[in-house]
């Protein structure tokens, strides 16, 4: 099957020396001078981990980014500068310097408002009333209707001058439907992807009297937000060019978007050079696009690089406008520290590990391991390590990647469809309780101050030591506590572990604790960013962490959930919580409210237990970093082109 349907860098080209140009204009040369021309925006494609493909049905971040250059949505987003001025976030429009503060984006300033893309007017409901979409953050509360009618702008065209009308939209609607039905023909309808479910639920009505008008009809009233999100999923194809890509064959053999049948743009840019895995990709402005004057650069140039190291060198040499770093261990090698940082779903955790339970021939080693396991298994010792860390000092030690976190959940992880876990009241309440913060203040500054408490750390350590001294072994074994810290050998971990080791030894004294750093073998402490990142909702992460708290006999534990009057296994609890989470996002407000209250109560209880037992320690929030040659100018150009929908 040959479903390309988008830009693809083909590895089986017969003539690798040639490139395909969608237009007859001259392909621009790659700039050879160090200075980047003002009219071109240069970034990279890392061949080590990125494939330059725009696949409309199985997209990746790079393909999404490139597709944004070649298509236009029916309803788009624009920055609401009027509201930003009204709220005194900025004093004048288009002031992007105000958006970048402390190397992060202030999204309140960039709060978007809905605007018209391919549409001439906002959609009309079944009564013929135009529904203007205001308030991006309240979009999901909008009106419902069985029928929605849309009007296209006049004189819309593909790059090859062919017009776009309701027949184009209908053909693209039907073609998308055929392709998706074929791709998922072996699946049950219950597990169809969201875009196919929406296609099947929608009846397309073409206005026979006005070629710019079409409607969607539904058996049940649908919210405008649902309809617009579906409408924007459609990619438009010119019928003749698309059908040529599978002429004489079935539709599953279509090669539209490959080298021989290039993607026909109806967006701000078109492919000028590409479709060859050994050549850079270059996009140039599409003269047929109705708003191409809003885009700042005439060319977008993607340089192919072999690895991150090559990208760092090009950036340091001034040959790139921007660079995304995939390997954060390379951050310190960037000479120009003009960047923005963005939270990801990842958290760097400190994991605790017992020595293997096995009989040692050497009694000293056996006793050492027994004592270490006694401490590592005790929540008080794990909490003692937490309160011994001076996070403010770590931030000042040029640990570029260290962004302290105090939550087991990342900053962007959702608990419902619209709420972030770390913004919930119950999480902040749990955090204040754990850190003994009296005032209602969970700012990073306050959290850093309250999390560093050497006196409390020593008290917790001594309480464990005192209990150990009463055991049979503790009455006769007086050697310092031995801890093995595992390092992955990276510069970042070497620096961080060295700092943590120093802090622990300073707090508890080297006469009481002996910490060794190893890169292999048995260990007690290890820093890892893996394990939880593939769990996309807060409740699945918390259940996973809570399950690390096993029964004393090592068997799987059950969860006593008073709000459900049940004792549940891990899988049963996950099923209950997932059902409650789905119900809390339902349209039935009463059911949603009751489910959400129950859901939050259980999650609050789980998080409380995790803070008490502390099976792992959250250390730092993982961020993506995008570096700019000229922070304000290059960020502004990037924003005007991709609207924060690019890869970082």
TrEMBL record:
InterPro entries: SBP_5, SBP_5_dom. It comes from the Bacteria. Residues 18-27 have a biased composition (Low complexity). Residues 13-33 are annotated as: Disordered. It holds the Pfam family SBP_bac_5. One of its GO terms (molecular function) is peptide transmembrane transporter activity. Gene3D superfamilies: Dipeptide-binding Protein, Domain 3, Periplasmic binding protein-like II. GO terms for biological process: peptide transport. Residues 146-524 form the Solute-binding protein family domain. This is ABC transporter substrate-binding protein. It comes from Candidatus Phytoplasma pruni.
